[in-house]
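It is worth pausing here to work through a concrete case rather than discussing structure prediction in the abstract. The textbook approach is simple: state the sequence, then state the predicted structure, then interpret. We follow exactly that order.
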Amino acid sequence: MKAILLIDHGSRRKEANDMVYCMANLLQTLAGPDVIVRPSHMEIAEPNIRQGFASCVEAGATEVIAFPYMLSPGRHSIEHIPEMVAAAANPFPHVTFHVTPSFGVHEKLGELILSRAGIERHAAARTDFDCCWSPDKVEFSCGDACRVKQTLPVGA
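Step two, the predicted structure:
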């Protein structure tokens, strides 16, 4: 059974920590009963990554997909979280796992920002985003979630 371990940074503010629970509940509803969804925090608050991973396994997970609930591919999402997830997985050699990229740049996030700003998506806006959004046209500067990177042929 697959599980999603949703990982935010963690905060001293209860309201900030509660958001990862809200998102986990939303994801659980969207994914349905055949997927396990658990919240966790990288630091400061509990459940931490180790506890969240164990909770996934206790619920029957044989594969854990760790998602850094962060916007940018910074050190936490690229280095710290993968290291912490690997350590959390160590006691469970029968469970496979991988860490997804952080949000990065994605048209759904753009649509959400427009919605929060009360602005409609432009009627003529393309829907086949396969271009580079970097102002310097630097390949892949949008991060791992960049759609251009996902559509390039292997080895490109």
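Step three, interpretation. The chain has five helices and four strands. The beta strands are 2-8, 35-41, 63-68, 96-99.
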